[in-house]
Amino acid sequence: MNRRELLASFLGMPFVLSSGCGLSTPQLPTAGGFVGTSHAAGHKLRDGFRPEPPKDAWSTTDVVIVGGGVAGLSAARKLKQAGVNFVLLELEPEVGGTAVSGESSVVAYPWAAHYLPVPLPHNTELINLLDEMQLLEGRDENGTPIVAEQFLCRDPQERLFIDGQWQEGLFPWDQATDDDVAQLRAFQKEISRWVAWRDADGNRAFSIPVAKCSNDAEVMALDKQSMQQWMTERGWNSRHLKWYVDYACRDDYGLRIDQTSAWAGIFYFAARVSEPGSDSQSFITWPEGNGRLITHLRELVSDHILTGHAVSQITPPGNESVDDSVLASVVAFRTSDASDSLGPQPKAHGWKAPHVIFAAPPFLAPHLIADYRESGPSSIREFEFGSWLVANLHLDDRPSESGFVMSWDNVIYDSPSLGYVTATHQRGLDRGPTVLTYYYPLCESSPKIARERLLKLSWREWADIVLSDLERAHPEIRSLTRRLDIMRWGHAMIRPVPGFISGTARAECSRPFRNVHFAHSSLSGIPLFEEAFYHGNRAASEILETLDV
């Protein structure tokens, strides 16, 4: 593709026609590149790479945790509190999964997840974590935690670039007609109805964690259609309303409005609201986003973590290759012992344990767990993971602009990206150098095609796409950006397409496979910190029950 074709493919033909972009690539930063996820090691494991540890390279422990994302770290925290011995193995150089962060001389910044809504009173385990982190000042009369003001997202929180200038908020009020507003009000009224809805047992239709949601037939029926179909049935055809809801679906799920289950679409708007007519719960955030939560969890269990260790084989009991009938074996190799092509044969180490927590994405289970492909649930194939690109732009100064002032969350109307968050915002640094974290979900219908599109472009091509997108709101962005780093998430988050929430895959793949317990946010069908935290605690509790701890 030439440059026009590239930008048309990723930013849309209307953008190309309006911008008049040329064939030669304009100025790019002199510094930057791809960072993060170890695609080569992951793909090698997927393809059957299985080093064998020497006989003297085996250890024993009570639990092996595979995966150091939020779920794995949450399970580790619970096991540590109970005094259980364990080891946590993580492929990447740092734990954190999609909540990892970075730091510059100016400010820390996120590489993916960047906020946590204040939990509602029923989410007691998460509230205990926030209390443990000394974020709370008490609870209100309804039991909702009161988060110290310095940890809540600072105003102004959101703005939208539309018709050549910035406006406050994400709904385009200045351009909305009376009909647009009427449809928005009708949509909000329907969301309030679902916030108020309770089943015969008193359960909310939509709650966090998802395990607290009602499975009533009326609620589950929403999963049989897309969010767009659900809105069309109600006569909501406002362009601005559809854009607003589509943005929400892309923001949380990396799916367009026509790809997202109506259940998941309504969940986005209803699950974080305490009562009808109330605003969504406030956001807890830091410059580094959810990296602050990861730092806390990591520090609690740091003496149990081995990073840079790629797990290549998990053999639960019941398989002929296991010597001890009650122990699982887990083999991993240090990625630092291997060359870029993972050869020559790297050194491997093995662990034997009565329990394993598989806190990696479920799609890896058939590749790593012996017998799982043949004896595990066939519904594992129903899990779809979307691809995302995240870029951090290091700016020497703020761009000049018109309209509402730079906010924490900054969105461009009709862009396929989600815009950017401003890392210095929470620190009150409103002038001078900053870091902008830019998000681009690849929403192709085929996850495989999305991953191929993500990975095939060079850094220069992606950098040009990012800067071209932001140029429509910030004409000076190229001259101000001194460094642009890019992280490619090929399997970023679960995609709640129609039928997945109400199907059997989540329940079937959550059940232990012999003595391997599963913990990952995707088991909820919703890619949130709260869901990963819930499943980590659940898997650890399953083990603690067997240990009578």
- The low-pLDDT segments are none
Beta-strand content bin: 15-25%
Instruction: Determine the mean pLDDT.
Output: 94
Q: Give me the CATH fold name of the largest domain.
A: FAD/NAD(P)-binding domain
Total helical segments: 18
Overall shape: it is globular
Helical coverage, percent range:
25-40%
Q: State the total count of DSSP E strands.
A: 23
CATH arch. level architecture of the largest domain: 3-Layer(bba) Sandwich
Q: Structural class from helices and strands?
A: alpha/beta
- Measure the end-to-end span: 60 Å
Main sheet specs:
8 strands, mixed
Give a quick rundown of the structure.
The protein is an alpha/beta fold. It is built from 18 helices and 23 strands. The longest helix has 19 residues, at 178-196.
What does this structure look like?
By secondary structure, the chain is α/β, with parallel strands linked by helices. The chain has three domains: 3-30 and 385-494, Polyamine Oxidase, Chain A, domain 2 (Alpha-Beta Complex); 39-100 and 290-382 and 498-547, FAD/NAD(P)-binding domain (3-Layer(bba) Sandwich); 154-281, Guanine Nucleotide Dissociation Inhibitor, domain 1 (Orthogonal Bundle). The protein has 18 helices and 23 strands. It has an eight-stranded mixed beta sheet with strand order 1-22-18-21-20-19-10-11. It has a five-stranded parallel beta sheet with strand order 13-4-3-17-23, covered by helices on one side. Helix 1 packs across helix 2, helix 4 (70-81) packs parallel to helix 18 and helix 9 (239-253) packs across helix 10 (262-270). The longest helix is centred in the middle third of the chain and has 19 residues, at 178-196. The termini are far apart.
